[in-house]
Amino acid sequence: MNQFESQIVAIPYSQQRVYNMLSDLSHLESVKDRIPQDKVKELKFDSDTVSINVLPVGDIVFKVVEREEPKCVKLEATTSPIPLTLWIQMLPTAEEASKMKLTLRTELNPFIKGMVQKPLQEGLEKMAEMLSKITY
Q1: What residues contact 50, with CB distance under 8 A and at least 6 apart?
Q2: SS3 state of residue 49
Q3: With 80 as the cut, is the pLDDT of residue 96 above it?
Q4: What is the distance between the alpha carbons of residues 117 and 124, in angstroms, rounded to a whole number?
Q5: Which residues contact residue 106 at a Cβ distance below 8 angstroms, ignoring those fewer than 6 apart?
Q6: Which residues of 21-43 are buried (b: 16+ CB within 10 A; e: fewer)?
Q7: Does the pLDDT value for residue 4 go beyond 90?
Q8: 53 beta partners
Q9: Can you give the pTM of this predicted structure?
Q10: What does the angle CA 90 – CA 62 – CA 73 come to, to the nearest 5 degrees?
Q11: ∠ at Cα 70 (28, 48), nearest 5°?
Q12: Per-position DSSP letters for 8-27, written without gaps between them
């Protein structure tokens, strides 16, 4: 099992507001324009799934498999060339502030890990940074 973690990012909104937005993936439609079009195509959301086409990987569909209000949303890839599980964890830091960390777990053989480790880590960091800039 391989695990990748983003840096912890500060969010100037309460933990509950952040959870309310991220627990329903259809709310992420508002950030669609912030995602680099050269890396991601055909981004689609509904309340429980997000579907993306990542170049050169192909289609990846994440489905929410667990919601732990107000601190965690767990997603699993239902369509992906490799098994992926993503946790979005939120913790309060003040009444109107919180912090977030993304954790990605996957099973990679050593050869594949060498090729995808850096892009996975960079993608996770960019996703955390993008989620920290949303107006919740």
Answers
A1: 25, 28, 43, 44, 61, 62, 75
A2: strand
A3: yes
A4: 11
A5: 1, 2, 4, 82, 83, 84, 85, 120
A6: bbbbbeebeebeeebeeeeeeeb
A7: yes
A8: 41, 59
A9: 0.88
A10: 20
A11: 40
A12: PEEESS-HHHHHHHHTSGGG
